[in-house]
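hiii so my PI (J.) wants the whole complex modelled not just the main chain, which honestly fair. so below is everything: two entries, each one labled with what it is. i double checked the lines twice but i was tired so who knows lol
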Amino acid sequence: MTSVLTVSLPPAAVTALFSSAIVACVIAQLFILRAVFRTLPILPSTSQVPTPHRLTEILWVVLPVGGLIAVFVGAYRALPL
Amino acid sequence: MTGVALEPDQAPTPLSRDLIALTKPRIISLLLVTTVAPMYAAGSPTWLSVLLVTIGGYLMAGGANAVNMYLDRDIDNIMARTRLRPIPSGRMSPIQVLAFGVACATFATWMLAHFVNVLTAGLALAGFYFYVFIYTRWLKRSSPQNIVIGGAAGAFPPLVGWAAVTGTLDVSALCLFLIVFYWTPPHFWALALLKQVDYGRAKVPMAPLVWGERETMYQMVWYTVILIVLTLLPVLYGAFGTLYLLSAIVLNALLMGGVLKVLFAARASKPWTGPAWWVYKYSLLYLALLFLAMAVDRAIRR
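here's the output for the full assembly
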């Protein structure tokens, strides 16, 4: 019963899936960062909404990457390889 | 336990209804799912510890919500969505609301530290401060990243639940934190797309107002991609099993389908408000079911 409920993959598949997960996150994170560079000027100068500061925005986008790196490092150490 | 139904003269008074409303009980119900489910994923908690963490978590989150209403009292009157809250409607004074919020948080901190452990109390209090100062006071009115970084406040409950059982934090706890963190943007931006006029009137720089609707929708897709990766990652290192994996695959497919439907509808110049409402509502169910799947998976494999 336990074996049915547990996911057991060969080490090569685990490595391939783990690498794909990193690649997916890197691509997504780059597109997230792109928004900061690409879209700030969209806000019209007449807008009442405050214009965000670009450098601060970049910092806010980059900050969560630290969490992602930490979780990937921790996950890698725990991988059944 | 007979006769639990309230008699007419015991029905909640307007004040008690307002006090409950200040805590935003509907939002807290989801926070409690993301607190209690990790407790069962982390170990085998006693019913008493679950009860204590539930009460402490409710009071801490409720206190944060009350202080949030105190700090946002100037814009709550402008937005249709928040106009009927106790302060803008004049049913409670701002200082009463602030005192209630601080009292709830103080009692919750004492309760969790005394009856559970100091780490749990510290994490819950960190979530309170993050929500009040980083989100409400700083980012909400200054950056379109408000609900991204501010979303970390809503991601503390899994850490609280995990720490309550294990007394420590590990990679799985951090992964649960990041799952809620990356879930917040697609969930909240679906609402922001629908309520952008309201937010504009209150001068809150939500993503659709700063980046435009289309870019916000693309961002929802990218955050969902990372969310999906994070939900599947624990399966790779054996933290969760088949039941969780299957649940996550179905839940993720529906979420990504909904987010893409919003984007494709907008790109085809078709109405996207229906799909956006669906994403907003479904994402609530998504998070609750995902966390329940974690708890059930660990319980049946134990």
